[in-house]
Inverse folding.
């Protein structure tokens, strides 16, 4: 079912992969983010990592489907990256942007210069309210929505906070609101794709929350998870469907109109860090299952149900980053994906035949 096309050493521990889709056109460009603890010479390995500096890199790659060629185009030294998302271009004449969040509590935005095939940093915004504020939280997860005039950005952080920002076509970033939502790390956040006033968040306090951005009130709180809530997916095709991943190893499907119990659950083992629907077949979902593998899951809306199609076992360390290439291969209807793992600092591009 899986064929590894490329395997590459990212040198630093890899934790995020995002494939670029621009103007609904499939492209072969994707970015990979890394996160590396800096250990001082002579420092005991058992020392706590909380005060150690963290560094990272943003890699830009191009994968050519026709000749199956992978090329690393760029390496940018940064603080440690925890999440990244490609932002939509303002118009067909504009370049797309890559947004990253890092261990210094910063949002960095890079413009993708398509002719040069390079990323150029445009702006940096700190979540710290003031320069004198004590150590900024780690910026853990990022999501966006576009209203035509502005891009709204949501960022969750390691102190349990949520941060709502607005990014304009002039490159200005304005903080709309920041508030404490979770008792521990707010691992994830996601806008509802159908109701733009709803923002979801999940935390290490095992809570899943919905926030009404119109009233600045919590819409509801769900306590179905038995461990920290680590990833969220508001389904792009099915209104009211929300999928969640957790350290408790369960993939859950909810109807947001009735959150008392899940519609379906699937045990994927190892804890689930990311959920990515395929752009062309969004009922096929790629799940990064941290301590086991990368799993491909089929969503059945009619049942409703979740079923495991297959598991990619190439990686030998924590499975964090995953994304689908935004096309379906012309010759054999297979799908292409990029995945990356942490301590073995490995990036793979592979092909998946879901018909088998």
């Amino acid at each position: 079912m899986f064929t590894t096309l490329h395997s590459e050493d990212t040198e630093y521990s890899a934790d995020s992969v995002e494939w670029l889709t621009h103007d609904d056109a499939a492209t072969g460009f994707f970015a990979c983010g890394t996160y590396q603890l800096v250990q001082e010479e002579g420092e005991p390995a058992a020392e706590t990592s909380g005060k150690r500096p963290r560094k990272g890199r943003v890699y830009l790659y191009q994968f050519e489907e026709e000749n199956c060629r992978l090329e690393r185009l760029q390496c940018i030294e940064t603080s440690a990256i925890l999440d990244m998302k490609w932002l939509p271009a303002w118009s067909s004449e504009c370049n797309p942007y890559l947004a990253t969040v890092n261990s210094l509590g910063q949002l960095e935005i890079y413009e993708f210069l398509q002719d040069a095939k390079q990323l150029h940093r445009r702006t940096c915004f700190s979540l710290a309210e003031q320069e004198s504020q004590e150590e900024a939280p780690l910026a853990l997860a990022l999501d966006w929505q576009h209203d035509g005039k502005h891009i709204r950005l949501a960022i969750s952080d390691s102190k349990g906070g949520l941060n709502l920002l607005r990014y304009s076509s002039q490159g200005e970033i304005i903080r709309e609101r920041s508030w404490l939502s979770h008792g521990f790390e707010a691992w994830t956040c996601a806008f509802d794709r159908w109701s733009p006033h709803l923002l979801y968040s999940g935390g290490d306090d095992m809570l899943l929350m919905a926030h009404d951005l119109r009233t600045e009130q919590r819409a509801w709180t769900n306590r179905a998870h038995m461990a920290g809530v680590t990833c969220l997916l508001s389904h792009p095709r099915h209104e009211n469907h929300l999928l969640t991943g957790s350290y408790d190893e369960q993939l859950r499907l909810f109807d947001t109109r009735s959150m008392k119990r899940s519609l379906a659950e699937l045990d994927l083992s190892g804890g689930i860090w990311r959920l990515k629907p395929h752009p062309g077949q969004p009922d096929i979902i790629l799940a990064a299952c941290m301590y086991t593998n990368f799993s491909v899951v089929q969503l059945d809306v009619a049942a409703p149900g979740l079923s495991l199609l297959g598991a990619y076992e190439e990686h030998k360390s924590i499975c964090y980053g995953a994304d689908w290439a935004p096309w379906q291969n012309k010759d054999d209807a297979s799908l292409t994906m990029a995945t990356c793992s942490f301590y073995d600092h490995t990036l793979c591009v592979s092909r998946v035949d879901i018909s088998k």
In short: DSSP finds no helices and 29 strands in the chain.
